[in-house]
Amino acid sequence: MITEIRYALYAWMGLGVLVFFLLNFITAPYGRHSRKGWGPMVSERLAWVLMEFPSLAILLYFLVKHWSSPIPALILAGAWVLHYIYRTFIFPLLLRPGPKGTPVSIIFMSQVFNTINALFNGFFLFMYPPTGFSLRFASGMFILIAGFAIHVWADHRLRVLRKPGETEYKIPVGGLFNYVSSPNYLGEIVEWTGFAIAAWNLAALAFLLWTIANLVPRALAHHRWYKKQFSDYPSDRKALIPFIL
């Protein structure tokens, strides 16, 4: 059975590579890129809850079921759960939703991805748990925490750009926003890089690959959108990685 699961993960990773190439030509229609033609619309707040909940529920199930696992595995599962508590409930609650909403098709695809991804990671995290507080584990946790902090800070910075009642987009400035258009996506990639280093298993690596496949094209699309929307957008600002990309 383990061999079959590994082969399924390899296929899953291959699909992630295909999605990366597709997303360079088709921008997922949610947020500022939301558009008609992808099915009925749902409010952004409800959409985020529906999209992210499977990741939270499935890892909570694994965490409760394997409560006697080594402490490092419990720490990683706890970090996952905290991330998805933020993404499922706190982020939507604080969100200032746009007028367009999110297509049902995007919600469904996100739920499918999050369900498969969480099942893989829950299985591998507790079937092959990190058993000691090694330098690699400590380094991975440091990177994970740093990435999560960047992600949450960037979300906050975007929220406070607009005053209550304002709907128009503005150029974000300050901190990493002076260097890249999407530090929130950079933070997520850094966070799951740390998770992959600390967990050191194939499922965590696959999640990192999928995170890159999804967020790199989206950061590039955001960058193009900013440059098209604002004639005075900083010309030296990169899309995702300071001074590089």
Topology, please?
Elements: H1 2-23, E1 41-42, H2 44-65, H3 71-94, E2 102-103, H4 104-127, H5 135-159, H6 183-199, H7 202-229
Antiparallel strand pairs: 1-2
Helix pairs in contact: 1-7, 2-3, 2-4, 3-5, 4-7, 5-6, 6-7
Structure, briefly:
By secondary structure, the protein is mainly α.
What strand line-up does the widest sheet have? 1-2
As a whole number of angstroms, the C-alpha radius of gyration is: 18 Å
Quote the distance from N terminus to C terminus: 41 Å
Structural class comes to mainly alpha
Mean pLDDT: 94
> Spans of 5+ residues with little confidence (pLDDT < 50)?
none
How many structural units, i.e. domains? 1
What is the makeup of the main sheet? 2 strands, antiparallel
Strand content: under 5%
Q: Helicity level, as a percent range?
A: 55-70%
The dominant shape is globular
Q: How many β-strand stretches? A: 2
Instruction: Tell me the series of helices and strands, N- to C-terminal.
Output: HEHHEHHHH
Number of helices: 7
